[in-house]
Amino acid sequence: MTPQEAPRHREKSGRFWLLRALFLNLTFYPLMVLWTAAGIAASPLCLVLWKLVTGWDFGRITRHLISIHGLGMVVITSPFVRFSSEGTEGIGRPCILVVNHLSFFDSYYMSTLPFHDIVFAVGAWPFKMYWYTLFMRLAQYLDVESAPWQDVVATCTATFAKKGVVIFYPEGHRSRTGRLQPFYSGAFRLAKETGVPIVPLIITGTDDLLPPGRFALYPSRVRLKALPPVDPASFAGHNGHLRLRREVRERMTRALAEMQGESGAMRISQ
């Protein structure tokens, strides 16, 4: 057991913790189904009302509604999760957010960012969830595994022109160790081709809340931290995107280790 895992193990013990975990699961799943079903049922009316009030295109409206849905998931779990964020208010737009990936819940916490016009660039499997597929396509989310690269660039360029944000999980899959996995190059190639800066975003604690491969949720502490932006213009040359990828991953590795160490120290002090 590592020093970081030891306090986590001590925290996940005792009758009171088990009762909280039980109550979390008994309340979350029924409320999740109700919230999701209500959102799907109300979405046609909401799309029309948002269009009349804001004049936004349907892609942006759908992204806003998805953000509201995600925020609802955060609110449902909030009695059992201590959440804090750092540096997100200063994120400039447009930008490309690259986020480490620990849990299915990571995307819900993106709804806590101070803007909602976010396009997710993900793999093919989320598009196979039939209850979400229509909304993901309306929101112009990107299937980076299947879509032609020129279509990805075109959609992102249009998003950036409206000061929107594109989110990548460069690991591609959830980490089962808490450590960063190797990065794919898509986000960094996009940054080089468009000149839009990369903003690394670190999340911790969602792997405690909902670990990969599990259905049971656990009380946890979730932290979200934005690192300073990285200008792709500083990485010239044919392989500039590879050096950009390496630099961003190194920064995120250091920040993630610091945050995980701080979380362990906080558990010990309590």
From TrEMBL:
Gene Ontology MF, one: 1-acylglycerol-3-phosphate O-acyltransferase activity
CDD domains: LPLAT_AGPAT-like
Pathway membership: Lipid metabolism
InterPro entries: Plipid/glycerol_acylTrfase (IPR002123)
GO biological process: phosphatidic acid biosynthetic process
Domain Phospholipid/glycerol acyltransferase: 95-206
SUPFAM superfamilies membership: Glycerol-3-phosphate (1)-acyltransferase
SMART domains: PlsC
Keywords assigned by UniProt, alphabetized: Acyltransferase, Membrane, Transferase, Transmembrane, Transmembrane helix
Membrane spanning stretches: 21-50, 108-127
PANTHER family: 1-ACYL-SN-GLYCEROL-3-PHOSPHATE ACYLTRANSFERASE (PTHR10434)
Name of the protein in question: 1-acyl-sn-glycerol-3-phosphate acyltransferase
